[in-house]
Amino acid sequence: MGLTREEKERYARQIILPSIGETGQERLREARVLVVGAGGLGSPALLYLAAAGVGTIGVADPDTVEVSNLHRQVLHGEEKAGRPKTESAAARLASLNSTVSIRRHDSRVCAANALAVIRDYDIVVDGCDNFPTRYVVNDACVVLGKTLVYGAIDRFEGQASVFAPSRGGPCYRCLFPELPPPGLVPSCAEAGVMGVLPGLIGLVQATEAIKLILGIGEPLLGRLLLYDALAMRFREVAVRRNPKCPLCGVTPSITELTDYEHYCGGSAVNTSIPQVTCQELASRLERQDFTLVDVRNPDETERGMIAGAIAIPLPEFARRIEELRPFADRDIIVYCERGGRSQAACEMLAAAGFQRVMNLSGGHAAWRSRQEAP
What we know:
This protein has 374 residues and is an alpha/beta fold. The chain has 2 domains: 31-238, NAD(P)-binding Rossmann-like Domain (Rossmann fold, 3-Layer(aba) Sandwich), CATH 3.40.50; 275-372, Oxidized Rhodanese, domain 1 (3-Layer(aba) Sandwich). The chain is 34% helix and 17% strand. Helix 7 links the parallel strand 4 and strand 5.
């Protein structure tokens, strides 16, 4: 079926390109792309995929819109605060291009549903904000032979690539075989992110998806693009398929999808580590009958600490753990920004023989909220 008169008019500036033409525009119309995450990376990717005329776009995200998202998640508006991101995304994309079919996936993509969700799409754009989902999505794409367009951001830096063993390239696990220790890598909420950064990386992802649909140009297959916003510098690193990859290698050890429940949304869970509430901590501050440890990064502690805390950043924690040995006979309460990294530090202490270790539930973010409450 050829393009309609309305389609020819809408996409005229795109169709005029010799490498696209009407045939390429028809390919875009027939394409099916799933974007996992309607946040910082997903926002620009979704907007430009819809604008380009990708016929079927899936949006997978279990979260709701928050005002603190809006400096980078430009797909959403203030009036959508508290509403599901997929709902907000669908409304915005429909207003941009009503000819595009938008499919909502409101549940978290996990081992139980990943194959069913991804199976109906040609290309998957990874806009994840957590490692458990990222690994499940990668693994499902490898199993189904789908192409994964990867993107990630951190503070002022970003990266992008295309993972597709079915095309002869590597998968995400060829680069990162295993998840990092729970809580070791701070989230955007903990570490911060420059608002425009995911805009650029998300556009790179949209560009790669469109190129792959059209079969033009040179995709980022086997190449990891690195971007430093402060230096305004791009560089590339070659990424080859790893024959020893646990997923797509010659003798894979991963044969089925797995959920990483110990992350629990980014925080480690060990029921043997007692949790202390902010209210309990506040009642104990006057007595000073415990040792308080802050495992956030220096740039985080500079913005404020709980009075009396000892600062030992988590990346240094393992080699500095003996500094806490003199306090082993009293409670040691550990905190980070939201509770994930401090839980990992608590487990290190427990493994080193410390018996009176506690984690501050909700971390410094919860403590600040309590202090700011009227």
